[in-house]
Specification:
The chain is of the alpha/beta class. It contains 23 helices and 14 strands.
């Protein structure tokens, strides 16, 4: 039973959750959290402060010892808003690696929203009607509209509690002019999404993270109600109470710790204004969040779990959105994808690629023509850039780079170790990408004329050769397809060490 660890380096705090995969479910073994305020100096100066970095490294070393003691099989460490904004983030990433051996992945706001969504739908019963998920952290606020387990839309706004406190609230309690500027900024940012949230006809609202937990605890005390829901009316009352209180008064409120009291006023104003601007009744707090999404993702990549279908659905939805946006010929893309996957399956003994390459090859087949949207001249380079830099949800940056590299080499150029797209890959991927890219080149060759003439491809594997037998529509020619396959024969021998022949069935 594998054990996974998820580490979230946020703008306000650093969190750890370790879980064991039992059957198809995850069982929590250990949780830890500490406030380090990584974002405090970033939002003021643009740089991570030495003290914040040192304190965070100290916490990460503690997390590392726990992960080792529990025999963790896999660890994923992600960083969010503060590291996205910091100009010296690279120095911190190297410090983490030297101190723990961990590689930190800086994820985008949209990927953060996707993982939070995954954590919620994988571990809790979420209504099939439209749901708004809110995660207000230290540096940003992720808003995700979900329906039937599918993400309709995700947006990341710069409305984190640490960021807003540093930017707008210079006095304790805040002055009226400071609050007016704060409300104005929040209103401007919410104006980007309020109409879409209203039109979505949200049925329920789920809020995650520490600010929501504190507000929920305060609401329960004030209303003498044990329910975890916070109505818009109580949220407005709490916001007014918190901005009029000084820090000592806020610290005495239930559920608000000494460090949370420093930033809770800004967070409360965001929630109050969000409910007001978007005509929402209130929210309920959930303890699930980003770490749960990371654990669900790791468990699904390890094997079939309750989250596997959810992740497949997210990837499929995101790829289809990209295909539509870049005006890719969907019929042709599906034909090429099906042929590429069939080649992968039938030539396993030849290419010996890791199983995950099947998914990456499928994605590359769907997206290999997105570069045409920019310009057909240099379209393969454009394709690489778009795939590696786009928000294709469900794939890490490294995975997107692999997918992009597979799709990159469909023209005259061949993947070489000195090429930019290849140099940034791990050594094993530098060996595997040329094989996957060649499978995609062949799949495209089967459908080069876009006529649908080739109906199926039979594959015969011999000790020193591979034979393709093309079944085609009798009244339609396949000369272009045969010509394209012929061009790949020498490269096929170079990559796989076998001769390639083709015949008509």
């Amino acid at each position: 039973m594998p054990i996974f660890a998820a580490v979230d380096i946020g703008s306000n705090s650093v969190r750890l959750k370790i879980a064991r995969l039992q059957g198809r479910r995850l069982r929590a073994l250990h949780e830890d959290r500490e406030v380090t305020r990584m974002g405090e100096s970033v939002f003021r100066t643009g740089f991570l402060s030495p003290d914040a970095m040192a304190n965070t490294i100290k916490v990460l070393r503690r997390f590392h010892r726990v992960a080792q003691r529990l025999g963790t099989d896999s660890v994923r460490v992600v960083a969010t808003s503060a590291l996205r904004d910091a100009r010296n983030s690279r120095a911190f990433l190297e410090w983490v690696r030297s101190a723990t051996g961990w590689r930190v992945e800086i994820i985008s706001g949209l990927e953060e929203g996707r993982l939070i969504h995954l954590g919620l739908v994988s571990s809790a019963k979420v209504n099939s009607l439209p749901v708004l998920m809110i995660d207000l952290g230290g540096g940003s606020c992720e808003l995700t509209i979900s329906a039937g387990g599918h993400i309709r839309e995700t947006v990341s706004l710069p409305l984190g509690a640490v960021r807003l406190t540093n930017e707008f609230l210079q006095h304790d309690p805040p002055r009226k002019s400071e609050l007016e500027r704060l409300h104005g900024f929040i209103g401007r940012e919410l104006g980007r999404v309020a109409d879409r949230i209203i039109k979505a006809r949200i049925h329920s609202i789920i809020a995650t993270s520490g600010t929501a937990a504190s507000l929920s605890a305060v609401c329960q005390k004030l209303s003498k109600n044990r329910a975890s829901s916070v109505t818009r009316l109580y949220m407005q009352r709490m916001a007014k109470l918190l901005v009029k209180s000084n820090i000592e008064q806020r610290r005495r409120l239930p559920g608000i710790g000494p460090r949370r009291a420093e930033i809770i006023a800004a967070g409360a104003v965001v929630y109050s204004d969000l409910l007001e601007h978007c005509h929402l009744r209130g929210f309920r707090y959930s303890s699930l969040g980003l770490r749960d999404g990371l654990l669900a993702q790791m468990a699904a990549e390890h094997g079939s779990t309750a989250s596997s279908k959810q992740i497949e659905s997210e990837r499929r939805d995101s790829i289809q959105a990209a295909v539509k946006h870049y005006r890719v010929d969907i019929s042709h893309a599906l034909q090429v994808r099906d042929s590429a996957v069939q080649l992968f399956d039938r030539l396993k003994s030849v290419h010996r690629l890791p199983p995950q390459y099947r998914e990456w090859l499928s994605a590359a087949a769907m997206l290999y023509e997105v570069g045409d949207y920019v310009n057909r001249n240099g379209r393969h380079r454009h394709t690489y850039y778009i795939i590696s830099n786009s928000e294709i949800l469900g794939y890490t940056l490294e995975q997107r780079r692999i997918i992009a590299a597979i799709a990159r080499y469909l023209g005259k150029s061949r993947p070489g170790p000195a090429d930019g797209p290849m140099k940034i890959l791990a050594p094993e991927d530098r060996e595997n990408v040329p094989k996957a890219s060649l499978l995609l080149r062949l799949a495209r060759a089967f459908h080069l004329a876009r006529s649908g003439a080739v109906q199926s491809v039979g594959v015969r594997v011999h000790e020193a050769s591979i034979e393709f037998r093309l079944s085609h529509k009798r009244r339609m020619g396949v000369d272009l397809e045969l010509w394209a396959i012929e061009k790949e024969k020498n490269y096929f021998r170079e990559v796989f060490g076998r001769t390639l022949s083709v015949a008509l069935a």
